[in-house]
Amino acid sequence: MKSLEISSKRQGLSLLVVAVLSLAWAAAAAQTTVFDNVRVLTMTGSGVVSGARVVVDGEKIISVGAAKGAIDADATVIDGAGKTLMPGLADMHVHYFNEDDGAVFLANSVTTVRNPWGTSQTLNMDAGAKNGSLMGPHIATSGPLMDGPKPIWGEGSMKITSPDQAVGAVESQRTTGYTAVKLYEGLTPEIYRAAVAAAKERNMQVWTHTPDGMSVNELLDLKVDSLEHFDNVDDVLLPEGATADGYFARWAAADSAKMAALASRSAESGMWHSPTMSVILQRYVYGADPEGFFQRPESNYIGPGLMQWWQGSAQRIGPYTDERKAAAVKQKQFLKSLYDAGAPVLLGTDTPNPFVLPGFAIHDELALFVDSGIPVEDVLRIATADAAKFLRQEGEWGVVAADARADLVLLDADPREQLDTLRRPAGVMINGRWHNRSDLDGVMAELKARVAEAREKSAAAE
Ligand SMILES: [Zn+2]
């Protein structure tokens, strides 16, 4: 402490801050939490364990065993009687840049997100989720989108016009700390291949749309890591010799017999499909009735900017036609074909695209997977353990097991019987930090009030 006394006021202060922070960290790290007498969906080979005791120390689960024997007197004990504990969910396709969404994700049982277009801000937000300075989920992120000379999403995308430039862009994203690249539609096939090769050399993942001039079959041959939104799958599924104009017409015409073939090719390739059912079909259901949608209580957390964008897009979306309904049937059928063939799939929403609510949309996505015919037990595994496996972090999270990260949700019902229980968890643990129901309610009420105020201000300014 001597050096602190003689240092300047400013240095002393920052030293003090460091000292306080490390004390807080030490306290958090030493904190033991015990979930006792709880039913556990482990998402491992151990399956479901009843009457369990799950002990969390610091950021990690240290044991999952029977609820018997003495509990450390210093531990915080959470009574799990009648409740179910499972890993937090992963929304594997989000665009998360509004820090307010962090608490909304947690309140909806989402403890990890994958963000396929990130910046250094995203990396900071992930660090904040881990050290507790930001209330929100862990984030796996790619760097900025890599597109051609006229990027679809404009500024913010990297404009790549040569194979060398692609290699340079991949390398710069690696050194910035991204673990994946997001490749987009305007890349030429030659540049696209160069980017994929550069990413693979660097052990980075490739998350992708289908570039113009290439087919999904070529992506399967290249063994890219994930294809988003079933992008251009409709071209492969079109019946021989058929022509159908437009996205929905092509999907509505999709040949069911071709689905099984593409699904088994996908399984062989190991490429994961990230269908984002919420954005490819559910948004058209909601967008056809924007008034009804904005009456839903979940819409109370949408700020004025997003709301304006969504209202404008509702006019472009228009009615939910029979053709769209027919397309949706085929899209679900293809998802089921993938499942039947053992092809890996990711559960993600593409929030905050129009009518895809941050946090809340995960429940639509889960329901759409179940509705496609995938058993609910497997849907829950896809949304947890499989997501970690995709990110090459199998067993590190997405499971309730010793040494896994303590990202957990405590539920009032068994989600295998009542999926909706995930909408309102009794509590959520993120990286070992526990938020009980009243904490979550408090944060959500505060956010709702702030959004209402922002909407009023924006309405008054018009
Ligand atoms: Zn997206």
Please characterize this protein's 3D structure.
The structure is a single chain. By secondary structure, the chain is an alpha/beta fold. The chain has 2 domains: 1-26, no CATH class; 91-402, Alpha-Beta Barrel (TIM Barrel), CATH 3.20.20.140. The chain is 44% helix and 17% strand. It has 18 helices and 17 strands. It has helices at 2-6, 9-30, 101-107, 120-131, 163-176, 189-201, 216-222, 233-237, 247-252, 256-269, 277-287, 290-295, 304-317, 322-341, 361-371, 376-382, 385-390, 437-461; strands spanning 32-41, 48-57, 60-66, 76-79, 84-87, 89-91, 110-115, 138-141, 146-147, 158-159, 180-183, 205-208, 226-228, 272-274, 408-411, 427-430, 433-436. Strands 1, 2, 3, 4, 5, 15, 16 and 17 form an 8-stranded mixed β-sheet that branches. The protein has a 4-stranded parallel β-sheet with strand order 11-12-13-14. The chain has a 3-stranded parallel β-sheet with strand order 6-7-8. Helix 7 (216-222) runs parallel beside helix 10 (256-269), helix 10 crosses helix 14 (322-341) and helix 11 (277-287) runs antiparallel to helix 14 (322-341). The N and C termini lie far apart (57 Å). Mean pLDDT is 93; it is low at 1-29. The site of zinc ion (ZN) has 4 residues, from loops.
